[in-house]
C-alpha cells in the first residue's frame, strides 16, 4: 500500500505498470502457460527487447509450462512454437539463466536445458517430463493428409532428440530410447540426465543478486 501511494504521488498522471513490465525491468521472463502462439509472440518479443536493451546482462527465464500440450497430453500448439523460442535463445549474446518452477514438459523441457551451461536451475519440487511430439487431432482429414502430419511429427521428434542430446550431453540413441514413453524426472533425475545444473533449495537469492531492486524500477 505504501509503495503504491508513493508511486502515484510522484506520477499522478501515469498508471502503475503491469506485473510483466516490472519483471521485464529485472530482466525476468516468465513462461507460465502452454506454448500457444500468443505466448510465443510475447516471450520472443521480450527476449529481443532485453537483448536490445543490454546484450551483456543476463536474462532470467522462469518456466512453468506443459509445452505444446495440455497436462492431459492433448496438443494445443505446433512444435514450431517451442522451436521459435529456442532459436531466439540461441541468438542471445548474453547469458540466459533458466529456472524450472512447477513443471517443464516436452518443449518446455528443451527450453530449460537450453540455458547457459552452469546456469540451469530447478526448484526442489518442480517436475520435468520429456516425451515425443504429439500428433495433432486428425479429425476427418483424408488418409494422405494424416500421413503428411505423421511424417512432420517424426521430423519434429528427430529435431527434439538432436537438440536434447546437444544440451544434456547424452547420445541421440539414449535420448531416443528415453522418450519412447513419457519420462518423468524429479530434481535428482533431472540433474543426472543433464537437463539442469543445480537445484535451488535456497539459492534464489544468488541468481537474483544482480537484479535491480524495486526502488530502482520507478526510475
UniProtKB/TrEMBL annotation:
<keyword id="KW-1133">Transmembrane helix</keyword>
<keyword id="KW-0812">Transmembrane</keyword>
<dbReference type="GO" id="GO:0051117">
    <property type="term" value="F:ATPase binding"/>
</dbReference>
<dbReference type="InterPro" id="IPR029045">
    <property type="entry name" value="ClpP/crotonase-like_dom_sf"/>
</dbReference>
<dbReference type="Pfam" id="PF00574">
    <property type="entry name" value="CLP_protease"/>
</dbReference>
<keyword id="KW-0472">Membrane</keyword>
<feature type="transmembrane region" description="Helical">
    <location>
        <begin position="28"/>
        <end position="52"/>
    </location>
</feature>
<comment type="similarity">
    <text>Belongs to the peptidase S14 family.</text>
</comment>
<dbReference type="GO" id="GO:0006515">
    <property type="term" value="P:protein quality control for misfolded or incompletely synthesized proteins"/>
</dbReference>
<dbReference type="GO" id="GO:0004176">
    <property type="term" value="F:ATP-dependent peptidase activity"/>
</dbReference>
<dbReference type="GO" id="GO:0004252">
    <property type="term" value="F:serine-type endopeptidase activity"/>
</dbReference>
<comment type="subunit">
    <text>Component of the chloroplastic Clp protease core complex which consist of at least 16 proteins: CLPP4 (3 copies), CLPP5 (3 copies), CLPR4 (2 copies), ClpP1 (1 copy), CLPP6 (1 copy), CLPR2 (1 copy), CLPT1 (1 copy), CLPT2 (1 copy) and 3 copies of CLPP3 and/or CLPR1 and/or CLPR3. The core complex is organized in two heptameric rings, one containing CLPP3,4,5,6 in a 1:2:3:1 ratio and the other CLPP1 and CLPR1,2,3,4 in a 3:1:1:1:1 ratio.</text>
</comment>
<dbReference type="GO" id="GO:0009368">
    <property type="term" value="C:endopeptidase Clp complex"/>
</dbReference>
<dbReference type="InterPro" id="IPR023562">
    <property type="entry name" value="ClpP/TepA"/>
</dbReference>
<dbReference type="GO" id="GO:0009532">
    <property type="term" value="C:plastid stroma"/>
</dbReference>
<protein>
    <recommendedName>
        <fullName>ATP-dependent Clp protease proteolytic subunit</fullName>
    </recommendedName>
</protein>
<dbReference type="InterPro" id="IPR001907">
    <property type="entry name" value="ClpP"/>
</dbReference>
<feature type="transmembrane region" description="Helical">
    <location>
        <begin position="96"/>
        <end position="114"/>
    </location>
</feature>
Amino acid at each position: 500500500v505504501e509503495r503504491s501511494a508513493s508511486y502515484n504521488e510522484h506520477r499522478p498522471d501515469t498508471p502503475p505498470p503491469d506485473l510483466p513490465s516490472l519483471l521485464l525491468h529485472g530482466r525476468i521472463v516468465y513462461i507460465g502457460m502452454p506454448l500457444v502462439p500468443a505466448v510465443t509472440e510475447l516471450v520472443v518479443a521480450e527476449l529481443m527487447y532485453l537483448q536490445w536493451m543490454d546484450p551483456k546482462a543476463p536474462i532470467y527465464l522462469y518456466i512453468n509450462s506443459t509445452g505444446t500440450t495440455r497436462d492431459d497430453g492433448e496438443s494445443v500448439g505446433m512444435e514450431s512454437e517451442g522451436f521459435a523460442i529456442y532459436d531466439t535463445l540461441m541468438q542471445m549474446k548474453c547469458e540466459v539463466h533458466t529456472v524450472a518452477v512447477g513443471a517443464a514438459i516436452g518443449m518446455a523441457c528443451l527450453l530449460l536445458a537450453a540455458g547457459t551451461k552452469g546456469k540451469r536451475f530447478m526448484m526442489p519440487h518442480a517436475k520435468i517430463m520429456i516425451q515425443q511430439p504429439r500428433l495433432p487431432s486428425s479429425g476427418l482429414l483424408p488418409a494422405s493428409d494424416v500421413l503428411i502430419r505423421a511424417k512432420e511429427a517424426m521430423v519434429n521428434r528427430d529435431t527434439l532428440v538432436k537438440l536434447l542430446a546437444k544440451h544434456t550431453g547424452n547420445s541421440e540413441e539414449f535420448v531416443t530410447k528415453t522418450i519412447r514413453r513419457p519420462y518423468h524426472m524429479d530434481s535428482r533425475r533431472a540433474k543426472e540426465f543433464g537437463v539442469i545444473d543445480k537445484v535451488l533449495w535456497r539459492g534464489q537469492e544468488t541468481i537474483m543478486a544482480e537484479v535491480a531492486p524495486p526502488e530502482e524500477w520507478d526510475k
